[in-house]
């Protein structure tokens, strides 16, 4: 029987060392990103505060900043989840690239809340003077989704995670997460009868996938809170199937 060829032990050792080095580099990159996401203040030289909301920016903040923060606090303070002793840090990213650093990829959203890392909020490029978030196209986001809305929406995500815990938060349905955040951030009445008609008719704005809006989710949340009598804690205490809520809502003609 012929002898087996000698194994390439030195080559395997070199390969193993390369893999370990790459692993260490990857771990260092991840650790660096986490540290930056948790404490990004060194990148943002300017800040302003109202109540428990602190706005951070890389450029000097304009005179309209105070009114913006007052509007944000007004919106989130209406929620029973609001805790005046919990400080919320909001970071205005002045370039799409900087926003992508914290969002990891640019999905075209107006902002994100890093709820799994303590709840810092990051907003894509925006104009405080106009009160608008700037889309990837360079145009202002129109309509009632103002800059104050986007900030309040993301803070509500952080407040929800604070209340129910991170693990339970990620187990909630999309309509619970996004619908309640919109319900708080818009801070205006929801026309349940009209929205129900739009839902039944299949209106484009009632499709989050087609429109990019959460009006459908907000409708379900408003229905559960205002007609079914759920408390906010009951709404967010466990996952709720959206389809079941929709069936009940579609059957109602007394809204």
Number of domains: 2
Distance linking N and C termini: 88 Å
Number of helices: 11
In the CATH scheme, what's the topology name of the largest domain?
Glutaredoxin
Q: Give the biggest sheet.
A: 5 strands, mixed
Per CATH, the architecture of the largest domain is 3-Layer(aba) Sandwich
The whole-angstrom Rg is: 23 Å
The averaged pLDDT comes out at 92
- Portion in helices: 40-55%
Number of beta strands: 7
Using the coordinates above, name the CATH class of the largest domain: Alpha Beta
Shape: globular
Strand content: 5-15%
Low-confidence stretches: none
Largest sheet, order of strands side by side? 1-2-3-5-4
Q: Decide which structural class fits the backbone.
A: alpha/beta
Helix and strand sequence: HEEHEHEEEEHHHHHHHH
Short summary:
49% of the residues lie in helices and 11% in strands. It has helices spanning 9-38, 65-76, 96-103, 147-164, 166-169, 174-186, 192-201, 208-211, 215-226, 232-236, 242-251, and strands spanning 46-50, 53-57, 88-92, 111-114, 120-123, 126-127, 132-133. The strands form 2 sheets. The chain has a 5-stranded mixed β-sheet, sandwiched between helices.
């Amino acid at each position: 029987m012929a002898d087996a060829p000698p194994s390439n032990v030195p080559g395997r050792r070199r390969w193993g060392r390369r893999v370990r080095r790459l692993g260490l580099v990857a771990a260092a990159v991840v650790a660096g990103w986490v540290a930056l996401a948790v404490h990004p203040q060194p990148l943002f030289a300017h800040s302003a505060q109202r109540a428990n909301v602190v706005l951070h920016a890389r450029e000097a903040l304009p005179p309209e900043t105070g009114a913006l923060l007052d509007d944000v606090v007004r919106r989130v303070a209406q929620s029973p989840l609001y805790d005046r002793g919990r400080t919320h840090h909001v970071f205005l990213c002045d370039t799409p690239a900087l926003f992508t650093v914290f969002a990891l990829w640019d999905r075209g959203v107006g902002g994100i809340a890093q709820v799994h890392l303590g709840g810092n909020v990051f907003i894509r490029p925006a104009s405080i003077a106009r009160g608008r978030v700037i889309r990837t196209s360079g145009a202002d986001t129109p309509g009632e989704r103002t800059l104050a809305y986007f900030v309040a929406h993301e803070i509500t995500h952080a407040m929800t995670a604070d209340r129910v815990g991170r693990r339970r938060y990620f187990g909630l349905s999309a309509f619970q997460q996004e619908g309640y955040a919109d319900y708080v951030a818009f801070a205006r009445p929801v026309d349940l009868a009209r929205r129900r008609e739009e839902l039944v008719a299949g209106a484009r704005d009632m499709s989050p996938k087609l429109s990019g809006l959460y009006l459908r989710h907000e409708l379900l949340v408003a229905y559960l809170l205002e007609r079914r009598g759920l408390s906010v804690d009951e709404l967010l205490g466990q996952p709720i199937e959206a389809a079941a809520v929709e069936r009940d809502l579609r059957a109602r003609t007394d809204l």
